[in-house]
Amino acid sequence: MKTIETSRLVLRDFKQSDCDDFFEYARSEKVGPMAGWKPHDNKDESQKILNLFLEENEVWAIEYKPLNKVIGSIGLHKDSRRNNPKALMLGYVLSEVYWGKGIMVEACRAVLDHGFNDLGLELISVYHFPFNTQSESVIKKLGFKYEGVIRQSTVRFDQTVLDSVCYSMTKDEFNAL
Ligand SMILES: CC(C)(COP(=O)(O)OP(=O)(O)OC[C@H]1O[C@@H](n2cnc3c(N)ncnc32)[C@H](O)[C@@H]1OP(=O)(O)O)[C@@H](O)C(=O)NCCC(=O)NCCS
């Protein structure tokens, strides 16, 4: 995947040596469940997911330049709700230590630019659970258009049934921002 640099961040492929940094935030009860996944119980779980990231090639590690440390991840994934190869779905998580500094907005803007202007995507979607006001704030700051709610669309790992709040942005909308 292309390495993307912003003022505070390097978005790059994960490396095997990132496993400790990955586990550090993936073990938190406040991070994975907000994105739909179970907190990691141990480093072996993080290692397995890291191997999947390397196989699938759709997730960047977010490296924080001042510390040369991986503090989160961001990806463009197939959107199971849309049958359009030029439409991908944005997903992201950040270590709670770094919340509230505008880091994810910075990372997302760079990935949106890459998606539309290098990969030739026509639409990027993003979804959050109704209670995830932090992600809602990021999505609104980025200028996504609200589409509606798909009720009871996700059965999370803990068997909770959740609605999805849906947004999208087209290439023209991004380039007009
Ligand atoms: C969503 C997430 C990526 C936001 O990243 P971020 O870089 O902190 O984003 P911002 O700095 O723009 O802050 C977003 C909002 O979080 C809130 N926030 C910041 N720090 C917080 C904290 N410690 N506790 C609770 N809320 C906090 C703020 O209200 C802020 O909104 P505002 O700027 O309108 O006031 C991050 O919270 C996260 O990783 N959450 C868990 C995983 C997740 O939800 N992923 C997205 C799934 S859809």
Describe the fold and architecture.
The chain has 177 residues and is α+β, with helices and mostly antiparallel strands. It has helices spanning 19-26, 32-35, 43-56, 103-117, 133-142, 171-176; strands spanning 4-5, 9-12, 59-64, 69-78, 87-94, 123-128, 145-155, 161-170. An 8-stranded mixed sheet has the order 1-2-3-4-5-6-8-7, sandwiched between helices. Helix 1 packs across helix 3 (43-56) and helix 4 (103-117) packs across helix 5. Residues 31, 34-35, 92-94, 99-105, 128, 132, 134-135, 137-138 line the site of coenzyme A.
| Low-pLDDT runs | none
N-to-C SSE string, H for helix and E for strand: EEHHHEEEHEHEEH
Strand content: 25-35%
Write down the CATH topology: Aminopeptidase
Question: Which CATH first-tier class would you pick?
Answer: Alpha Beta
Largest sheet: spatial strand order: 1-2-3-4-5-6-8-7
**CATH homologous superfamily title:** Gcn5-related N-acetyltransferase (GNAT)
Helix content: 25-40%
**Topology, number of strands:** 8
> Please, what is the average pLDDT?
98
Largest sheet: 8 strands, mixed
- Inertia-based shape: globular
Kindly, what is the distance between the CA atoms of the first and last residues, rounded to a whole number of angstroms?
A: 25 Å
Bound molecules: coenzyme A
Structural class: alpha+beta
